[in-house]
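Figure 2 data, in text form.
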Amino acid sequence: MATYLEFERPIAEMTSKIEELSLMGDDAEVNIAEEVERLNTKRDALVKRIYDKATRNQIAQLSRHPDRPDFMDYANLIFDDFQELHGDRAFADDAAIVGGLARFRDHSVVIVGHQKGKTTSEKIKRNFGMAKPEGYRKALRLFKLAERFDMPVLTFINTPGAWPGIDAEERGQSEAIARNLQELAVLKVPVISTVIGEGGSGGALAIGVGDRLYMQKFATYTVISPEGCAAILWRDRKYAPEAAEALKPTAVDMQNFGLIDGIIDEPKEGAHRNLEKAADMMGDVLYKSLEELLQIPRNHLLAARAKRLRGLGEFAAA
């Protein structure tokens, strides 16, 4: 059963009417097919109106929609021959970050991404996509492996943030994230990152530094969730809509700020309603970007990456 958010309720009600009508038998007084077609047209218009007018807070809700595809959903559709590699060779294997070797059309690549999980037991196993130091060190091990064998790196970001527990702090959470930022900035292979859901704080940055950064249409990228921001500033999570407007976390906002290189479109009702189409859209964008980066000499690639990173956050006073 599809899950609908509160603001999607009119779509859910229209969908239910169409399904009920479709199950009715033929009636001489009513042309069922024509009525279903009319309602489908009406539903399409409703979908467009709701999503086109979605607020920043509603887009934040979509970015963590219960049905939203996770990293492995895309990995199984976009890549071939995926071989997962485990562990950081120091402490443990963090299930919140998954990575390994794969084929991307005609290229061998290394892919790394956050994995939140679907069921309750899997979410607990994956720590809801919030990695600990060993997760970021596993990612770094894979980045260095890619460099050693001259394979491009593609990362997929979907996390509320790095795990803030005392166990993570004791094992060097901040150092692990900082080390990844440093190493990714000078990695001698192309690096493409994509925000596929939530891009939260340092947990997102730790696998998000590279030559290109993309966001799906209904993804978000921000230092804190709207609810977390509201709890700090207003002491009340009900102010999440106001916090979202101030944070400006959407793909359109990030593009306007010059912080991302492009927005990857999604099916009309979001990636959570049509995974296969969403994967095709993403795969085409990533392949085109990878082909462009592979044509650039490595010294020029690193120089352009350094210039890009140093330019982030620049603005002109009005």
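Caption note: Residues 61 and 294 are 36 Å apart (CA to CA).
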